[in-house]
Amino acid sequence: MMKIQTVCVECVLIFFAVFGAGCAAAPMELTYHNPVWDGYLADPQVLYVDGVYYAYGTGPADENGRQFPVLRSDDFVNWTYLGGALESVTDPAIRDYWAPEAVERDGLFYLYYAGDQKMRVAVSDRPEGPFKDTGRLLFPDEPFSIDGHPFFDPVSEQWYLFFAKDFFDQRVGTALAVVRLGDDMISTVGSVTTVLRAFSDWQIYERNRTLYDQLWDAWHTVEGPFVVYRDGTYYCFYSGGNWQTPGYGVGCAVAENVAGPYRDRWSIDKASVIGTIPGQLIGPGHNSVILAPDKETYFMAYHSWNAERTKRQMCIDPIIWTEQGPKVLNPSRGVKTVRLPLSASAAGRSADEEKDIDPALFGTFVNPVYEGADPFVCKHTDGYYYFCQSEGDQGVSVWKSDRLTDKGIKRIVWLSPETGWNSSGVWAPEIHYLNDKWYIYYAADDGENANHRTGVLESVTQDAQGDYIDRGIVYTGDHIETGRDNRWAIDATPLEMNGRLYLLWSGWQGQRDDIQSLYIAEMENPWTTKTNRVRIADNDTYVWERVSEDPSLKGLNEGPQILKNDGRIYVIYSCSNSWGPTYKLGQLSIQDGDDPMNPENWTKKSAPVFQGSQTVHGVGHAMFTTSPDGTENWIVYHSKISPQPGWQRNVRIQPFTFSADGSPDFGTPFDAGRVLKRPSGEPLPKRAGRFADRFEDNQWDNWCYYGYNRFIDAQNGRLMLGYNPGWGVANRYRSGEKAIVRDRVWDDFVFQSRVRIVEGHRDAGVIFRVHHPSVGYDAMKGYFAGLIPGTQKAVLGKMDGTNWTELALVDFPCQVNRWYRLKVVAEKEKIRVFVDGQPLIEREDDTYAIGYAGVRVVDVYAEFDDIDISAVSIR
How many helices (H) and strands (E) does the chain have? Predict the structure, then answer.
């Protein structure tokens, strides 16, 4: 029998000559290039036969009409195209040839493939072919069967065929099954067993897809199985989603028996093994796996799209095995060097594992956590937080995150129309999940504040960041029968109580009297009131509720929020004036079961429940949620950046408790910069190997941002920081904008980025070894290296959270609107700064040894591109 392995990657043949096949491998370096071949080769499988590697895949036929391109390599680094493997089938003629996979048994080679969406098998006496189709359909009764994966089970010593077929119940779509192969390798024995069904939205191929003469709300796809038996466990790698899109990726399910049941506990929200990495990989998937000649390291062969999205190409990278499942190590395109075996290198460290991470540095945070006002976050049953924010007063954005200290990934879900009642003044949006749909309540006007009204957006799908339809104005007046004389209404929030739905808001008593009080109405549905409004409390019961706490000025109540505990419902509201330092929180409460439409049932607390201090000003418009693990209560609120009149505010979070009587105890607001323990259940960052981002998808999803929410964007393949999209007043909100790479830290590294200062004459550059980042010019601990065109300088310095210390300032003729390549090399205490390859600065400083990395600007608009950060230890 020939030596056969299904192969992803191998080292040079010198290994065999020096060590022999049965000896442990000494450390070696393998240098290769992704993609391994410039041609079209999707769904790759690699077979090792007597020291030669053969790669098969989906692709165009050769000049003789043979299907499935075959590559050959003697060293796994250099690949030669041999032509097609399979003689075309002409009786009947097959149009579509997909996903070949070859194995050897008893001197013959069997090629399993899908022809016109039906599993077939061809045979040859040589690995490169030509293979001749047997004329057999393996599953003639299945309308769809593809992606056959023959697997020899070392436990039962039987051959099995894993494949993908269609299912029409539960999550409808393509999923995985298995059946035992007959001894002839071209027939099946016994019944087909389901292996893995789709279980997550990331596996949706297409919504509203028509197949089998039926319209399906969502068609799911789980395909491309490949099984590895390791340490008594069966690992079934699979691909999910739509192969044509960046959402495609690889997950992995495990089982104790070859036929399952299989379960993937690592890919709940996204592909866990490998997925799209902006600037590096697009739509990686349909893999195969092999143990390398060092007998320790597994590799994966997979396809990904080229930058032009015109062809899928074969790539290879090593696999690491972690507690969070198998992962592809540093997947990317370009020249790669891997030291084998991985256990003899630092690659394990670059596996993004949480180890040697100091929780005192990275298990803590400081306020403020982000810039903005009127914060609202909904913690959903999927474990994610959904933050909602107005988009420059003319739209709404929803941010998705698995933690409270980072708003996460932003998507603009709605923009106001150019004209109409809601064309301007979009304030205080809130996102809620009601009646199995997402709803966003917002206030808007037509350019005149006196015309502010409440509107409702309704989600089209279950995706909180997806499309919405505008349900229009909510009636908040006193004539529900006719709908006339609607009234000023902002800060609407729903209340579910006694089996009914209500809406609370802040409204004016008259059309233009500017007297803000809290109102309630019962709802017919989430966007329609069914009763006239009822004012639930006076707005000036106590002096501290009045503007500036001045007895001669009006009362002001707004921003009601719901908090439930121990059979009582609390409405925490904001009062006094939002533009001044006396803004604070008051409390109304009602017993669960009482009628909230009766003002007599509401009780107002005589003292504020949360107010500012000598150092924290204008706290208010709060909301309440729990930590990721649900064990802690947290208040999310805004505060002013100074006691001076104005609306420049930022958002803070801190834990709170409940008093013995069940009422909330918020304590006092903590000072900015005070180190607090992160909400329980938030993950620590991970030591990183390599990170790269070229922003080819015009998203900045990998970054955590600190600054005014409209001063960051990604366009034309560049990250834009300090960018003002045309709202002049926004320049008042500049605060030294910064963005860090999410969830990754480095100690010794090489950090490279292209940078161009587009407008302004102050600083732009990179930050590194950062911890405790926050909103503010010097609100971080760590280093900054950058350029200053106004003074024609390059600079290196550090910040301690409050103060800036200059470490070096050297002459450099930098200009506005010109690209420069900035490079920082940090090894222990030595820091070197290069610009366009020219060494400019070298200093030693040991204040900070490890931290996040990112970019920063000071009162300028700059663009960044070709960002690449690599740990020194695995370069």
Answer: 2, 64
Torsion angle defined by CA atoms of residues 700, 705, 708 and 709, in that order, rounded to the nearest 10 degrees: 40
Q: 139 and 146 in contact (C-beta within 8 Å)?
A: no
Structure tokens at 411: 């998507």
- Kindly state whether residue 432 falls inside one of the protein's structural domains: yes
Residues 206 and 188: their CA atoms lie apart, in Å, by: 32
Last residue of a domain, one of 672, 703, 722: 672
Q: What is the domain extent for residue 329?
A: 4-344
**Domain match, 595 and 711 both:** no
Backbone angles phi, psi at 616, to 5 degrees: -120, 125
Q: Which residues pair with 753 in a beta bridge?
A: 822
How far apart are the C-alpha atoms of 681 and 695, rounded to whole Å?
30
pLDDT at 8: 34
Instruction: List, as own/partner pairs, every contact residues 660-664 make where C-beta atoms lie below 8 angstroms and the sequence separation is at least 24, other chains included.
Output: 662/565, 662/566, 662/567, 662/568, 663/565, 663/568, 663/570, 663/587, 663/589, 663/605, 664/563, 664/565, 664/570, 664/572, 664/587, 664/609, 664/624, 664/633
- The structure tokens listed for 683 are 């993950």
Q: Are 720 and 714 in contact (CB under 8 A)?
A: yes
| SS3 track for 57-80 | EECCCCCCCCEEEEEEECCCCCCE
Question: How far, in Å, CA of 506 to CA of 489, rounded?
Answer: 6
Would you call 684 helix, strand, or coil by DSSP? Answer: coil
Q: Average pLDDT in the 248-266 region?
A: 95
Unique residue bearing structure tokens 């918020």 = 666
165, 171, 173, 177: CA torsion to nearest 10: -10
Residue closest to 859 by CA, chosen among 788, 754, 767: 788
Whole-number pLDDT of residue 27:
62
Do 610 and 628 touch, CB atoms closer than 8 A? Answer: no
Using an 8 Å Cβ cutoff, are 490 and 560 in contact?
Answer: no
Q: Of 45, 118, 52, which Cα lies nearest the Cα of 85?
A: 45
- The structure tokens 């009764």 sit at 141
> In this structure, what CATH number is given to the domain that contains residue 237?
2.115.10.20
Coil vs helix vs strand at 599? helix
Burial class from Cβ neighbours inside 10 Å (0-12, 13-18, 19+) for residue 632 reads middle
How far is CA 209 from each of CA 173, 202, 214, 217, 466, rounded to the nearest angstrom?
Answer: 10, 16, 8, 7, 17
In a domain, 618, yes or no: yes
Domain end point (choices 344, 359, 389) = 344
Compute the Cα dihedral for 202, 206, 210, 216 and give only its sign: positive
Domains: count for the chain: 3
Q: Are residues 151 and 217 in the same domain?
A: yes
Q: Is residue 352 part of a domain?
A: no
pLDDT exceeding 90 applies to what percent of the chain?
A: 81
| Whole-angstrom Cα Rg for the chain | 31
Q: Which of 621, 583, 590 is nearest to 605 (CA)?
A: 590
| Residue 729 CB neighbours (<10 A) | 10
> In this structure, are 110 and 191 located in the same domain?
yes
Strands 376-379 and 664-665: unpaired
DSSP symbols for 761-821: SS-EEEEEEEES--SSTT-SEEEEEEEETTTTEEEEEEEESS-EEEEEEEE----TT--EE
Give the N- to C-terminal CA distance of the chain in Å, as an integer: 41
| Helix, coil or strand: residue 43 | strand
Pairing of strands 633-640, 617-626: antiparallel
Confidence of residue 875 (pLDDT cuts 50, 70, 90): very low
In-domain check, residue 349: no
User: Which pLDDT band holds residue 307 (cuts at 50, 70, 90)?
Assistant: confident
CA dihedral 268, 400, 246, 302 (to 10 degrees): -40
State pLDDT tens for residues 161-173. 999 999 998 899 9
